[in-house]
Write a structure and sequence with these properties.
Elements (H helix, E strand, L loop, with lengths): L1 E4 L5 E5 L1 H10 L7 E4 L5 E2 L4 H4 L25 E2 L1 H12 L6 H19 L4 E2 L1 H58 L10 H9 L16 E6 L15 E9 L3 E2 L13 E6 L4 E5 H4 L7
Parallel strand pairs: 5-6, 7-9
Antiparallel strand pairs: 1-2, 1-3, 3-4, 7-8, 8-10, 10-11
Length: 291
């Protein structure tokens, strides 16, 4: 049995003398190829009597396949298909929400291992490395993208909650006017306004702001000064409903209003004419409470 030094300067073997003679005939090793027998020293194949005659019988070299090529063979290097796929999928991750990058990262790692184990017969290590890096970069960017998106998502959620709160007050304002029309044009009683409007509103969800404590049954207060007031005589700009911390059948005046907005910098207020407005804290001091 023998060992040889391949064209890539790596040591291969042990191999049989017949195998080496076959490589000599095929031109895959030459007279200067270093080899040694078991227990011997490294020397050119031409110095071995059992191989020296073979160099006169060479035939044109055969281009081997990656799977059948012997160590040290001089043949065109095949680029790893997995390496190419890794690069393509890594780039495609930018357009596939990262799905391509996941596959590209896996294929890139497999391709690099494949190239290393091929002993120079398969190339494309650099392509596989590039595909792996591009795929990995996508995942490194995910926390950055999330950090950039969070403020926008938070703002969108807040806006949606504000719109929902406005709609709630509009429904309560409509319920109050329906109650008025059914009770000789008088607004509901302050002490039981929630109970009075509940059957008209249809659902208790109308009484709850989505941005407030869900454990509270109602997040809106009723202007106590409208208790039983004739709708026709009430100034339309009079506050009807306003935001409070929470409760049920809560009524009163500006002392019950929220000290801190649940909707960024705006407060939601409903008026006696059924309209609803979003306003800044500065405008709260200008609100009309006396009908």
């Amino acid at each position: 049995m023998y060992k040889i030094i391949g064209a890539d300067q790596k040591e291969y073997g042990p191999v049989t003398a017949d195998q080496i003679n076959q490589w000599i005939v095929q031109g895959r090793v030459n007279a200067q190829t270093k080899a040694k027998a078991e227990g011997g020293e490294w020397k050119p194949l031409s110095d071995f009597p059992e191989f020296s005659t073979g160099f006169g019988q060479r035939v044109p070299p055969v281009v081997p396949t990656a799977s059948g090529a012997p160590p040290g063979a001089v043949a065109p290097v095949k680029t790893s298909g997995l390496a190419i796929a890794s690069l393509v999928l890594g780039i495609s991750g930018l357009f596939t929400c990262g799905i391509g990058s996941i596959v590209g990262l896996i294929l890139g790692i497999v391709a690099m291992s494949q190239v290393k184990k091929s002993n120079g017969l398969v190339g494309g290590y650099g392509i596989a490395l590039a595909g792996t890096i591009i795929s990995a970069v996508f995942f490194l960017m995910i926390p950055i993208d999330v950090a950039m998106l969070l403020p926008a998502l938070s703002k969108a959620k807040q806006r949606a909650q504000t719109i929902n709160c406005v709609n709630n007050m509009k429904q309560l304002g409509l319920a109050a006017r329906i109650y008025s029309s059914d009770h000789n044009d008088h607004f509901p009683p302050a002490a039981t306004w929630c109970d009075a409007l509940r059957p008209i509103a249809g659902s208790e969800r109308v009484f709850q702001c989505p941005a407030a404590d869900p454990n509270q049954r109602c997040h809106y207060g009723y202007n106590a000064r409208l208790d039983g007031v004739d709708e026709k005589t009430a100034n339309p700009d009079t506050v009807l409903f306003f935001e409070i911390e929470g409760g049920w059948n809560v009524s009163g005046g500006p002392e019950l209003m929220l000290h801190k907005s649940r909707h960024g910098r705006t407060y939601v207020v409903a008026f006696a004419d059924g309209s609803v407005q979003q306003m800044s804290a500065d405008r709260l001091a200008t609100l009309r409470w006396n009908p």
